[in-house]
Design brief:
By secondary structure, the chain is of the alpha/beta class. The protein is about 40% helix and about 25% strand. It is globular. The C terminus is likely disordered.
């Protein structure tokens, strides 16, 4: 047998599978709670649920995770700063937010003197750079460096700045040209900054994986899923963590498509923090065109089309003005918190016995995740707050009182955003316990918290539960329809679905919910694509959503661990593009310049330029595949995209892009030996 292990670490659960590549069969699967305070605990719990006699036989361990995805959706991650040579403060402040960039005041900006084509007019003031970077980077987890023009000398400036920065700071740093070569400087800057923010996320994840594998003496090649569903080596992922942006959702898409024989489907993966929607058309996952966008970030990451939004089993349930709503962010379900901390249950009992209402969420607790006593980043008040939580979670009132505050002046937002502290609250997972759709943790805690929330919302617990389930289905329906519209109409893919269209989608959901037919005006969205459900909670909600869309729901076998399965069955794929541009010399004679991998060469004939560009693109794609971990035979294919424009009687040549595609396998130990 050739055995592989797939591991997926999500925001709530860590899943694992043992897979037989020869028989193409899952030999075992397991789940464990993801432990934010120490990821290796959850990973070890999942591994220990697998057939132990097969673990040491594994020749490859393939990983996926939603940690980067969730960090973007919840606007978390490490502390990082962008160094932008040639950045325009006015442009950044006016348009940077569209890509996820912070205001110009939070970016290190220095003049640069390159032209659009990459010509260096004069060098930056390196003495000024050395002086200015001495301060302002002390508490950073990563740094990204970009120069406004991606061509030639722009990369040289980035490299020089990186070397100078490393002499003063021991902080991970990445250059824009090491990641992407596209021209849009704001999008390139956004991608580079996000990569820097994800350094500590991927480092912690890979470190936890290695601890768990070493403890079980598992000696196997370690790879991780990229956002396009292919695999890359751990070394490659450590330098380019932004490539894991949609790692977990991509693995779920590959796994979901593998588990069903439906050629056209919509994969719906509902986890604890987010729900991911992907499309499979003619048996192939749909990909993005201009880079992955997620949360506030618009990047150049190559990936599958995946719509990620904040909806999961652990979404916070809140109330206001007798209305109930689901937040975009995750909290620890109170049923889980009470299972591990009896004080939570005792407080909820006392709260439920009361009859008063409150605008503040008094049922919620604060839970300490990690110690910050030795960190200079946090204030004395924040450290005192964390110290008060060392003996266990505290409700809002007690947590505030512990540091001399009240419930209106307590501010723990930075601690929550940094993952130092977690909020425990009422969630759909709690509602599942009340409705007996799930029974793993303390249903009593869920019931007590629901009584308090229902009282504040002016409804019964039964009505509260039904409304929460309906709201989950509505948000799922809304985003599935938005995904369909974005893939059906280029306008919506480029501009997004606006609020007016969202209103019509929501009205169509209400129309279907009420079972209305006919009348003056009928709202209905239908699709022939089947809905494929992935993730533990999905079975509760998907069938009703499918009926309202006039299609069928498929929840395949191993649906709960499809993400871990998708991680282990992938291949390595890489692309590399080379540009050809026409240039005119002083005599007006046209020639063709190829911007190659290590040099630019000019040819008299376009055919000669194309031949050289093809060889450069193929060489670059093969090298990229090997860098990602591919071994053995690597299949190469090439596309030639010649851009021309019609002008009266003439055809104007605008340039050519040669793109090579490389596909290979990671390989097994026996093959590598």
């Amino acid at each position: 047998m050739k055995i592989g292990i797939g591991i997926d670490t999500g925001g709530t659960y860590t899943d694992a599978v043992v897979y037989d590549f020869e028989q193409k069969a899952v030999l075992g699967s397991a789940k464990a709670l993801t432990t934010k305070e120490d990821l290796s605990i959850g990973i070890s719990g999942a591994l220990d649920g697998l057939p132990q006699d097969l673990l040491k036989k594994a020749e490859i361990v393939s990983l996926s995770t939603t940690l980067a995805t969730n960090a973007c959706v919840e606007d978390k991650g490490g502390n990082a700063k962008l160094i932008f040579f040639g950045g325009d403060k006015k442009i950044i402040n006016e348009f940077g937010w569209e890509y996820g960039l912070p205001p110009a005041r939070d970016i290190y900006i220095q003049d640069s003197y390159t032209s659009f084509s990459g010509e260096l007019q004069r060098k930056p003031d390196w003495q000024l750079f050395r002086k200015r970077i001495r301060r302002g980077f002390e508490h950073m987890d990563g740094v990204g460096i970009v120069e406004i023009n991606a061509m030639r000398n722009g990369a040289v400036i980035e490299k020089t700045a990186k070397n100078l920065f490393r002499r003063q700071h021991k902080i991970p740093v990445i250059c824009g040209h090491e990641l992407f070569s596209e021209l849009n400087s704001l999008q390139r800057a956004s991608s580079t900054l996000l990569n820097a923010r994800l350094f500590p996320v991927i480092k912690e994840f890979l470190g936890a994986i290695k601890i768990s594998l070493a403890e079980r003496q598992i000696d196997a090649a370690l790879v991780i899923v990229r956002s396009n569903g292919s695999l890359m080596s751990e070394e490659f992922a450590g330098v380019r963590p932004v490539e894991t942006l949609l790692c977990g959702p991509a693995a779920s898409t590959i796994g979901g498509a593998y588990l069903t024989d439906s050629p056209n489907s919509i994969i719906v993966d509902m986890g604890g923090t987010t729900t991911d929607i992907a499309l499979v058309k003619d048996n192939a996952p749909v990909t993005v065109v201009d880079g992955v966008s997620i949360g506030k970030w618009k990047t150049f990451v190559d990936g599958l089309y995946i719509k990620t939004f904040g909806l999961g089993g652990d979404s916070a349930i809140h109330y206001a003005n007798n209305n109930l709503f689901l937040e975009e962010y995750r909290v620890v379900p109170l049923c889980v918190a009470a299972e591990n901390h009896p004080s939570v249950l005792e407080y909820l009992k006392k709260l439920a016995r009361g009859k008063s209402t409150h605008t503040k969420y008094l049922h919620e607790h604060y839970l300490l995740v990690r110690d910050i006593s030795g960190s200079s980043r946090y204030t004395d008040e924040e450290k005192a707050f964390c110290n008060a939580l060392k003996d266990g979670p505290l409700p809002l009132e007690k947590a505030a009182k512990a540091i001399g505050k009240d419930i209106y002046t307590l501010n723990a937002s930075r601690l929550v955003k940094d993952g130092v502290v977690q909020v425990c609250g009422l969630t759909p997972t709690d509602i599942m316990h009340i409705k007996k759709d799930f029974s793993r943790y303390s249903a009593e805690a869920s019931q007590l918290a629901a009584q308090f929330v229902a009282r504040n919302a002016g409804v019964s617990v039964e009505v509260l539960c039904d409304r929460v389930y309906t709201e989950v289905k509505r948000k799922m329906y809304l985003n599935i329809v938005k995904a369909i519209l974005e893939n059906q109409y280029p306008h919506y893919l480029k501009k997004g679905v606006n609020r007016d269209v969202e209103r019509f989608i929501n009205e169509s959901f209400e129309f279907a919910l009420a079972g209305k037919q006919g009348g003056m005006f009928s709202l209905a969205f239908k699709t022939d694509f089947s809905l494929v459900g992935i993730g533990a909670p999905i079975r509760i909600f998907l069938d009703d959503v499918a009926k309202r869309l006039g299609t069928s729901a498929i929840v395949p076998g191993n649906y709960e661990v499809a993400n871990a399965l998708g991680a282990v069955i992938g291949n390595v794929s890489a692309t590399h593009s080379v540009e050809i541009r026409m240039v005119n010399n002083a005599d007006g004679i046209s020639k063709y310049t190829v911007y190659g991998n290590s040099e630019n060469r000019t040819f008299n004939e376009l055919e000669e330029a194309e031949a050289f560009a093809v060889s450069e693109a193929e060489e670059g794609a093969r090298a990229a595949a090997i860098e990602q971990g591919a071994t053995g035979d690597i299949a190469i294919s090439c596309d030639i995209d010649k851009k021309e424009a019609e002008s009266g009687l003439f055809t104007i040549y605008l340039g050519t892009t040669i793109t090579a595609y490389a596909v290979g396998s990671i390989g097994f130990q026996s093959e590598r030996a």
